[in-house]
């Protein structure tokens, strides 16, 4: 049997010697103006005496800058190696200093040997005496630009990957919270509804049949939102689901439940999070209507306020004392907290989820969704 090391201890893949094509394109474009300037500057000393010689300029540029262009590409695996080792700031500075010196020595060594092969050792020594200091400085600057560019590219790619991972995590979290809300609704609502329908069968078989049809439509809505994989639905569909929920609750509550709808029909085609309105209504049913025997009023208002889509559910129940920090009151179930969390995950501060209540003044929940 062949054993394999655990994934956490596996050796990271080796860094490729050459950068990806995108980096190579950027690298070449960054070098282009440098090479053009050097192409002119290398012939400047004799341009007035003998005229500008293009082939001589190309030769000088290739000899002086070509090795540097190639050698700097080796910084791609070198900087990648330093990042994978997660060196501290001091060790990174020390490593770059050593690499910078090694690069300058290698580049100038190639340049010196090229001149020596073409024009002899004396010419190479004269060039060294004339060029060494400013070539050394130019080489250091080129090293810093290349190393910084490669590190910056990796940092941008890493930030993009982390942002994509964070977005994916938020999407998965939102879906899991939607699934939790859907699973919470099914058993809780199933028991109460079936109990009400069973009681209705003995009194009014026609109404019982209508109630069963309404209940099946609600379950179909839940299944459709689960199968689609998207937590956004049309407002008209979410309203229909909420109306069906209230119709079934009315079987149990009877005249104690009065519902006033104020909906702008022009907004029915807008998208809203699935199972966002019904949990607000369910919260009012649970806390404002179930505990008392006298009639109560539930108001559902949907309109636009200064651009955002506003959904407001208010009851005239006993109300609660809200915490001073603006958090949801104690005893609030999974529904309100899940809806608030899903809005925050999807839109951040662009969405609003506000609760207003006080003892004896009912309970109001308002959502504002960006366009």
Q: What are the salient characteristics of this protein?
A:
371 residues; Heat Shock Protein 90; disordered N terminus; two-stranded antiparallel ribbon; 63% helix; 2 domains; 7 strands; single chain; 5-stranded mixed sheet; alpha+beta
Itemize the secondary structure elements and their pairings:
Layout: H1 21-41, H2 47-50, H3 54-72, H4 75-84, H5 89-119, H6 121-201, H7 205-228, E1 232-234, H8 235-253, E2 257-263, E3 271-273, H9 278-289, E4 296-304, E5 309-315, H10 334-347, E6 352-357, E7 363-369
Parallel strand pairs: 2-4
Antiparallel strand pairs: 1-3, 4-5, 5-7, 6-7
Helix pairs in contact: 1-3, 3-5, 4-6, 5-6, 6-7, 6-8, 6-10, 7-8, 8-9
- Mean pLDDT figure: 78
The helicity comes to 55-70%
Distance between the termini: 59 Å
Topology-level CATH name of the largest domain? Heat Shock Protein 90
Task: Please tell me the total number of domains.
Answer: 2
**The first-level CATH class name of the largest domain:** Alpha Beta
Tally the helices: 10
In the CATH hierarchy, what is the architecture of the largest domain at level 2? 2-Layer Sandwich
* Number of beta strands: 7
**CATH fourth-tier homologous superfamily of the largest domain:** Histidine kinase-like ATPase, C-terminal domain
Domain Histidine kinase: 277-371
GO molecular function, one term: protein histidine kinase activity
Enzyme class: transferase
Keywords: Kinase, Membrane, Transferase, Transmembrane, Transmembrane helix
């Amino acid at each position: 049997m062949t054993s394999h090391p655990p994934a956490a201890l596996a050796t990271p893949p080796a860094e490729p010697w050459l950068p990806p094509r995108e980096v190579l394109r950027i690298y070449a474009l960054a070098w282009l103006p440098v090479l053009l300037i050097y192409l002119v500057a290398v012939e400047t000393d004799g341009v007035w005496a003998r005229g500008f010689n293009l082939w001589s300029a190309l030769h000088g540029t290739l000899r002086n800058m070509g090795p540097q262009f190639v050698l700097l590409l080796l910084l791609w695996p070198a900087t990648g190696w330093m990042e994978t080792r997660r060196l501290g700031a001091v060790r990174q500075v020390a490593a770059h200093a050593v690499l910078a010196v090694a690069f300058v020595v290698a580049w100038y060594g190639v340049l010196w040997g090229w001149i020596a092969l073409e024009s002899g050792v004396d010419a190479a020594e004269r060039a060294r005496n004339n060029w060494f200091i400013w070539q050394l400085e130019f080489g250091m600057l080129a090293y810093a630009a290349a190393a910084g560019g490669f590190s910056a590219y990796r940092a941008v790619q890493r930030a993009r990957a982390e942002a994509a991972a964070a977005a994916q995590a938020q999407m998965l979290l939102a879906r899991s919270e939607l699934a939790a809300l859907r699973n919470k609704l099914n058993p809780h609502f199933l028991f109460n509804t079936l109990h009400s329908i069973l009681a209705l069968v003995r009194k009014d078989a026609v109404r019982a049949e209508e109630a069963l049809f309404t209940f099946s439509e609600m379950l179909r809505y839940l299944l459709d939102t689960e199968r689609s994989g998207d937590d956004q639905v049309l407002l008209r569909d979410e309203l229909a689901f909420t109306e069906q929920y209230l119709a079934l609750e009315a079987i149990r509550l009877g005249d104690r439940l009065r519902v006033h709808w104020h909906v702008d029909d022009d907004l029915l085609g807008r998208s809203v999070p699935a199972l966002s309105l019904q949990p607000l209504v369910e919260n009012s049913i649970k806390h404002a209507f179930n505990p008392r025997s006298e009639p109560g009023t539930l108001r559902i208002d949907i309109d636009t306020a200064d651009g955002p889509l506003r959904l407001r559910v208010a009851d005239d129940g006993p109300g609660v004392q809200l915490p001073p920090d603006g958090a949801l009151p104690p005893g609030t179930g999974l529904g309100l907290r899940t809806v608030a969390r899903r809005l925050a995950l999807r839109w951040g501060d662009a969405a609003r989820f506000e609760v207003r209540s006080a003892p004896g003044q009912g309970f109001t929940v308002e959502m504002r969704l960006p366009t």
